[in-house]
Design goal:
The chain has 521 residues and is an alpha+beta fold. The protein has three domains: 186 residues, DNA ligase, ATP-dependent, N-terminal domain (DNA ligase i, domain 1); 179 residues, D-amino Acid Aminotransferase, Chain A, domain 1, CATH 3.30.470.30; 119 residues, OB fold (Dihydrolipoamide Acetyltransferase, E2P) (Beta Barrel). The strands form four sheets. Strands 11, 12, 13, 14, 15, 16 and 19 form a seven-stranded antiparallel sheet that branches. A five-stranded mixed sheet has the order 1-10-9-2-8. A hairpin with a 2-residue loop joins strand 6 and strand 7. Helix 2 packs across helix 7, helix 5 packs antiparallel against helix 6 and helix 8 packs across helix 9. The longest helix has 14 residues. The protein is globular. The protein starts with 15 loop residues before the first helix and ends in a 5-residue tail after the last helix. Bound molecules: adenosine-5'-triphosphate. The site of adenosine-5'-triphosphate has 16 residues, from strand 1 and strand 2.
Length: 521
Amino acid sequence: MRPIPDEAPVTSTVRPSSIWASLLNVGVLFAELAAATEDVRALSGRKDKVARLAAALASLDEGERAAGAGYLAGAPRQRVLGVGWASLKELPPPASVASLSVAEVDTAFDALAELSGPGSQGARRAALTALLARATESEQSYLRALIIGDLRQGALAAVVGDAIARAAEVPVALVRRALMLRGDLGAVAEAALGVGAEALQAFRLEVGRPIAPMLASTAPDLDAALEKTGAAAVEWKLDGARIQVHRSGDDVGIFSRTLDDVTARLPEVVAAARALPGDAFVLDGEAIALRDDGTPYPFQVTGSRFASRSGHTVVLTPMFFDLLHLDGVDLLDRPGSERAAALSALVPSEWRVPRGGPEMLEAALAQGHEGVVVKGLDAPYEAGRRGAAWVKVKPIHTLDLVVLGVEWGSGRRRGWLSNLHLGARGPDGGFVMLGKTFKGLTDALLEWQTQKLLSLETHRSGHVVFVRPELVVEIAFDGVQTSPRYPGGVALRFARVVRYRDDKPAAEADTIETVLGLRPR
Ligand SMILES: Nc1ncnc2c1ncn2[C@@H]1O[C@H](COP(=O)(O)OP(=O)(O)OP(=O)(O)O)[C@@H](O)[C@H]1O
């Protein structure tokens, strides 16, 4: 244990722990991040949260900034630690005095992430116990939350982005732009706090490195959509899987909506990208399974190509709708109409999403697609944003809800987790239950969800298994009705499962506000 100076100077704003740490020149104590996180959870105003996080970020030493920013946002950076909920059920007795530094925790996480192969499970448990035994009670609960990704701070990454700007005294817009292009809080914190605005300005769209895809908001019909966008083009909305295709010379990289590298799974898309005339480009679009007559297969057919590498027979067609970079020129800030023109010049029409005027809605539906996306002609590409520049119109309404719990089935479904408890995102980072359903579940889905939900289990009560609120499921329904039985005062009528959305994090599920907006007036 590190010696503690007898007379540590204490003020009301700075925690003694960080002073000891800086006196001893050992970097910041991990307890400082745990305390900042606890404080932030208790604060309600965004400004106050940003100020508290900025203070914590400013106290970090050079070598700790990347890790520290990641931890404050609730993620042990991008490492897979291979530690499940079960191994954290029993913790060793906590240390009585804080002694862990941020850098030490980071090194321990690195070591955990590198363990693999035979015997690694035992080694992982030993390393984890050693780390936790050095942590105080509050550090233990913070470490646990970090490891299992359960900090419950809502959309904290964006707040940490603002805190980076404040701590580094650089414009927020610069930090947001760097985050959109790199998507890595740690790298952005390092640049902002280490060098400043200049380093942030140097962030560019790099061919080969995916950026967060632009998202669409929703409107009930075309008129409402056009009101949001102003002058716009209307594109078919294909129910495939989002792909971002990067090509540099012969090298091709394909990334999913969640920025996972799916190149090896889509050889036909790699071939298509290589057949295009450009030398370096970044394309945005959908990969979709189409029948010979051009109509789409159900989404599950497309989805199956992402679930496993082998045993597939159906070919996916790339259908592109945006061009973000071409031969050394970034197009992100160019108006939508200009990007669309550049796309048409690069990509033949059979690999482009049909685009036109309002008549496209009827054409898309006639061809079996789910609707249209209305796109502002003057709007730039807003990576990672769900803005007003892209607005989707789908005649059949579905909601993306989060599974909160699930009941063991009976009769034919005995042994399977069946009846799902569904929640929408609440205003405070929690979830509001809206109802239950076991409808629409095939045997394959029942088997899959049983395994998946058991891996997310937190506790049981009677025949209900409660789970970490992480799994998103797309639900169709016939309406929203008032119901005193549920906490939001509303319930879904005839809710049924359309499909699982394991490409979508719970933080992007639909909100209770959206659901309340669907009540009949
Ligand atoms: N022409 C198109 N332009 C943009 N996105 C399209 C288009 N056709 C299909 N899409 C898909 O629609 C999604 C846009 O809708 P949104 O941003 O709301 O994401 P989402 O919540 O996954 O959508 P949804 O739940 O409606 O499928 C994109 O991620 C993309 O996968």
